What we know:
CATH superfamily of the largest domain in chain B: PAC-like subunit
Number of strands of chain B: 12
Strand order of the largest sheet of chain A: 1-3-6-7-2-8-11-9-10
Number of domains of chain B: 2
Low-confidence stretches of chain A: 274-279, 299-303
Shape of chain B: globular
Helix content of chain B: 25-40%
Number of domains of chain A: 1
Oligomer: heterodimer
Number of helices of chain B: 8
CATH topology of chain A: Rossmann fold
Distance between the termini of chain A: 34 Å
CATH class of chain A: Alpha Beta
Strand content of chain A: 15-25%
Number of strands of chain A: 11
Largest sheet of chain B: 9 strands, mixed
Low-confidence stretches of chain B: none
CATH topology of the largest domain in chain B: Rossmann fold
Strand order of the largest sheet of chain B: 1-3-6-7-2-8-12-9-10
Largest sheet of chain A: 9 strands, mixed
Mean pLDDT of chain A: 86
CATH architecture of the largest domain in chain B: 3-Layer(aba) Sandwich
Shape of chain A: globular
Amino acid sequence: MGVRLYKKPKLDNPVLVACWPGIGNIGIIAVDILRRMMVAEELGEIESWDFFYPRRVLIRDGELKDLEFPKNKFYFKKTEKKDVIFFVGEEQPSDGRGAYAEGTKAYRMANLVLDVALKFGCHRVYTSGAAVAPIHHTARSRVWVVPNKEDLIDEVKGYENTVLMSDIEGRDGQGNITGLNGLLLGVAKKRGLEAICMMGEIPIYIHGFPIPYPQGAKSVLEALGAVLGVEVLVDEINALVQQSESEIESVYQRLPSEIKEQLDKLKHVDYAKPSEPEPITEEDKKKILQEIDRLFKKEPGRD
Amino acid sequence: MSEGRSFKLFTRPKLESSSLVVAWNQDVGRLGPTVADYLTKKLECPEFAEIGPEGFFSLSGVAVEDDVAQFPESKLYLCEEKNFVIFRSDIPGHDWYEFLSLLLDIAEKYCKVKEIYTVGGMVSSGAHTAPQSLLSVANSTEMKSKMLSHHDIVSDMDYETPGNQRPTFSSFLLWAAKKRKILATSLWMSVPFYLMAVEDPRACRKVTELFNRRFALGINFADIDEEVAKQDKAIAQARSQFPELDGYIGKLENNLGLTVDESEELVKKIGQLLKKGH
């Protein structure tokens, strides 16, 4: 088990941008669009068979020709401003107990990703994921930023459309980032690398459903683009946002009016700063989630 | 040897260029374990090694099946005289590649295995009276040509995993064996869908026959033939007793499909009948 590099380009102090699938696939949508937009070249891959169950077998004329595993690929792009290494993992390694990576396998994968980053002289890592927030789906998602070193706080405060954990009411700067998008921050810290996780907001009433949330991905994409000095072409992400908005809206319109009224309150709530009217209560939240759960389950064609 | 993984070796086998027969407990119609049990019992193969469940299975409790608590098992049985070993195991819940690596380590280091055969059932929509197909998938051209010498095996299958499914664990083993240049083939025997919940001795016989020829085992199949005859008789009696059941099986015999309700009814009736008979 290990890393297979296809080439060894000379990179100048590159940054690593890594992502895995997660809630709303916010991080992976953003990073994959950025990677394709920058026309990054393939750099290598982590051999997957030690981490994952295969996805597909190909048998031809009675002979097993190929067994396909989830891919974990590195890409690179040299630019005038910053050289970038991308890592895109198609699945989080799981030990069969939870939805997100944890334990030995996740730790090993995080270290393999950082091995490659360090090999090319990288000192800065960005990961991305989702932040579950009491926002309305018509609101622009903000990006929660979490650095792995205190002296990065001033820098991330300067990023556009971002909030720190301490800006969020009731959190007092505390929280958790589950899965590899979070774990990589910790492992990077242990190995002396700066790392920042960027998490696009996803409405609390949507995060539990297996649907992408490109609205959150768009905010992460814009933030990452600004950090890397890349002009973001928004056509692709806008098309995804438009499609997602119309799907969510069609479910939303079928909600009972009292539930919609409750959710509409979120349009006026800024949880980062207390505001009027009062936020929805825990009891309201429970009722809303049950109602939306019921609606999603009725949607034809859903798993 | 896969480091830090638990396995126990009770006896050091004396084998050269041996074969390994693999059966997974989670199998259609329990065909694999039935074949493995039949061979170990018939040839009096003692258990000689086992892989521990720690690190491969969730050990947060036990599953209960048919009122009985289950526990994952991964055991190896030795047939020194005929130069082969049998592995009968539950499919691990995680660390799949490490599990297969450990199995292949044991197979290579202690058993000098050169060929692997996995046994599995596949659901058939046909009747039990129709000829049942035995398919093989090899992990190399060399292994495929070896299987071609068995005329009653279908060995030209094309297949791709559909989007909503995952490959079988036997395919994973074939691939892992190929990485080590060990010849391997998976054998897939069709089992009529209404015998999945019970047992299909006819399917078991057909697979066992292949091993009988391949390893010159000299098995006398009188016992399994008796079981086949007994099951056929029980189904025939039920067909004459329940015209509806006869109609369903008759449709299958004439290559006609059944509705979902009819299929469910057939599975239920046959299950009740044969389980009672046992």
